């Protein structure tokens, strides 16, 4: 059991890893022993996140057993930038064990006012980007894959892709529902190559994306969940480490809600 959740020697990429849920995931992977590349659009934010992550590396590993943290900024709403991210990481490592597709955007507006730009921005980043990134990283994922311990793709969806959301975020809900199904499609496609594909469907967590909603409706949202609270960083780190580790080697095509039970209502 001591090695079941150990990520020592593994390499991971976390997109949108400079803040919010992405940073929670990156921190958990680093603390479990993985080398991690964080990517987001702003170079300064990437550098700040990487500096923080280096400070929470697994005890006795950083600088001694090869654990690394890299900051690689990229605008992942563009296919060419997805490919560039993969190419740059290939300069640091010969294999990628874990790809976390977390980068995302949200747009809210009433039905009759919802703009085309609100569809394009969200669909480009939340649905198209995970597809292009997975394709771009396939060679590196293949180098890490084995029958006993597959390479992993972890897509970050949302409970808004499992149920009708409480707010008018039409493109976000549609994109996350699409990402959940894309997860299943890719799980079937990539399973024979020893690559698992799973999705996490978070409920409300404290993040910049959720800040305004939580300020206005935080108590109501927390009360709606059977567990009666908002998600905490360890809740997200825990599911990410599980899906990245040998503990989940026989799990693929799953959509896992991490929402305190809210989506079960």
Describe this structure as you would to a colleague.
- The protein is of the alpha/beta class and 265 residues long.
- The chain has a single domain (11-259), classed as Rossmann fold (3-Layer(aba) Sandwich).
- Helices cover 42% and strands 13% of the residues.
- The protein has 7 helices and 7 strands; from the N terminus they run βαβαβαβαβαβααβ.
- Strands 3-2-1-4-5-6-7 form a 7-stranded parallel β-sheet, sandwiched between helices.
- The mean pLDDT is 93.
Main β-sheet, in a few words?
7 strands, parallel
Shape: globular
Radius of gyration equals 17 Å
Low-confidence runs of at least 5 consecutive residues? none
Helices and strands, in order, run as EHEHEHEHEHEHHE
| CATH C-level category | Alpha Beta
CATH fold-level label: Rossmann fold
Order of strands across the main sheet: 3-2-1-4-5-6-7
Q: Tally of extended strands?
A: 7
Q: What CATH architecture would you give? A: 3-Layer(aba) Sandwich
N-end to C-end Cα span: 34 Å
Decide which structural class fits the backbone: alpha/beta
CATH 4th-level superfamily = NAD(P)-binding Rossmann-like Domain
Q: Into how many domains do the coordinates divide? A: 1
Individual helix count: 7
Beta percentage is: 5-15%
Arithmetic mean pLDDT: 93
In percent, how helical is the residue content?
A: 40-55%
